Amino acid sequence: MKKYFKYFLVVFLFLNYGCQRNSETITPVRKDIIQAVYASGKLLPLNDYTVISRTPGYIEKIHVRAGQFTTVGSALVDIRNEQNELSIQTAANQLELAKANAHPNGPILSGLREEMEGAVSKYRLDSISLFRTRSLFNDNACSRQQLDQAEAQAEISKKIFERTQHNLAAATERYGVELRNAGNQYEAQRTNRSDYQLLSAVSGKIYDVFPEVGDLVGISTPLMEIGDSAEFEVELSIDETDIGLIAKGQPVTYSIDAFPDTIFKGTVNEIIPHVLPSTKSSRIKATIQTQPGYAFYSGMSIEANIVVREKKNCLVIPREYLHNGNEVKVKNETTFRKIKIGIEDLQYLEVIHGIGENDQLVK
Questions:
Q1: What DSSP character marks residue 137?
Q2: Could you count the other beta carbons within 10 Å of the beta carbon of residue 312?
Q3: Whose CA, among 193, 200, 221, 223, lies 20 to 30 Å from 174?
């Protein structure tokens, strides 16, 4: 009998306890509420940029080390490309040849000029011979055939002279153009050589150097990371469903794994208007206030809460008392009552209208 009594008592207490839980009621209360958006990302130095190679080749020399400081125009890395050196040498050879060809006393132009001068002399002699033959013909001292031959020879000499004159002028122009083109090609190859010694575009700190001497790199290969030595910013990833809530100037609180007991603050500084399809997220940049005694490193993982809305003394209910997205169950009512919801956090929802402070809610 005692055994059955104990069993009955346990069941009774269990059922009674369950009924009390199910019938637990609360009333809305007034409190301050803050709505925040969670984000994660990484810490980066201000003005952070990655130096990339502009041409393929082998790393010949690295002028800096991670942790050092650099200034604008300072050499960072030398890249050697045998093909480029051969191209420069070929361009130099072509330039020297073009100079020789275009020089007035060079073998080509001097030869053409001598040919023209010979044609001038021949034309002059044939012209004198024609003048004499014409005089003799007028004195009936020679035949018409001799005059015709003299006239033909003078005409031939004249055309040969004009042709050699034209050849000299055309060759002078052509070799002049080739000289200018060869000079431009040589300068272009020399300019390309500057792509093989990369110079710093900013003054800052070298945070990382990726390759080693002797490594083969291609076009756009990352070589090193440079950024501000004292100031940092945060790059955060925001879910596409929340990006519409983000605005410039909103306050941000951060937690960093390396400093678990410290909260850092900042503000939203830039919103990147693009959603990455692969992650369905967008990026934003935010400031972060550094604190003495904390050493920041580029790439540190960081978590953030962005305050998007905040209200004082508003009517709120716990989130678990909300049903069907916009309804609550009021005690002694047989149907759910619709409410209008305002801002919300992880625990509470603001109620704009639909219930009052005296309404008792059940789950």
A1: H
A2: 8
A3: 193
β-strands 337-338, 251-256: how paired? unpaired
Residue-averaged pLDDT of the chain: 89
Nearest to residue 197, comparing CAs of 71, 65, 339, 73?
A: 73
Is the domain of 236 the same as that of 340? Answer: yes
Residues 214 and 271 in one domain: no
Same domain, 164 and 245: no
Q: Are residues 105 and 172 in the same domain?
A: yes
> By the 8 A CB rule, do 51 and 76 touch?
yes
**Domain of 189?**
83-193
How many domains does the structure of the chain reveal?
A: 3
Give kind and range of the element (H or E) at residue 215. none
User: Nearest to residue 289, comparing CAs of 261, 269, 316, 309?
Assistant: 269
Q: What whole-number distance in Å separates Cα of residue 177 and Cα of residue 183?
A: 10
Q: Is residue 17 part of a domain?
A: no
Name the 3-class secondary structure at 86.
helix
Is residue 265 within 8 Å of 302, Cβ to Cβ?
A: no
What is the tens place of the pLDDT at every residue in 95-119?
999 999 999 999 999 999 999 999 9
What is d(CA 345, CA 39) in angstroms, rounded to the nearest whole number?
15
Q: What is the value of pTM for the model shown?
A: 0.61
